[in-house]
Design brief:
The chain is built from two helices and six strands. The chain is α+β, with helices and mostly antiparallel strands and 115 residues long.
């Protein structure tokens, strides 16, 4: 498992589906994704997407109905000038994710400290 690392949460972005922060640098997040995907494959869990398709981000909110992107982008545009925030990543949580109606819910099944 990769060692603990830090990333920066960068400008807020909006889309028709969500409001999110981009994360960077990508390299440590891609290494972690690859290690978790490899461990899952060893346990018989096929990854839904390869690491090459992974786009690191931190979702803050999801739209629970169809809507055009423009109003969401406009609503968060004034926040894009905020400075980046440093985040420490010292563990990975394996979760059981499910959708209940229009809401995502999850239960933490295992926390894995990063070395």
């Amino acid at each position: 498992m990769p060692s603990a690392f830090s990333v920066r949460a960068m400008p807020l972005a909006g889309s028709r589906g969500a409001v999110r922060l981009s994360l960077g640098p990508w390299e440590p997040l891609l290494r972690l994704h690859h290690a978790l995907a490899k461990a899952g494959s060893s346990a018989g869990l096929a990854p839904k997407k390869p690491t090459s398709a992974f786009r690191p981000h931190l979702s803050l909110a999801y739209n629970n109905r169809r809507r055009p992107a423009a109003p969401v982008v406009e609503a968060v545009s004034g926040l894009r000038a905020l400075p980046a925030v440093e985040l420490s990543v010292s563990a990975a949580q394996l979760v059981e994710l499910r959708r209940e109606g229009r809401t995502y819910r999850w239960d933490v099944r295992k926390t894995i400290p990063l070395g």
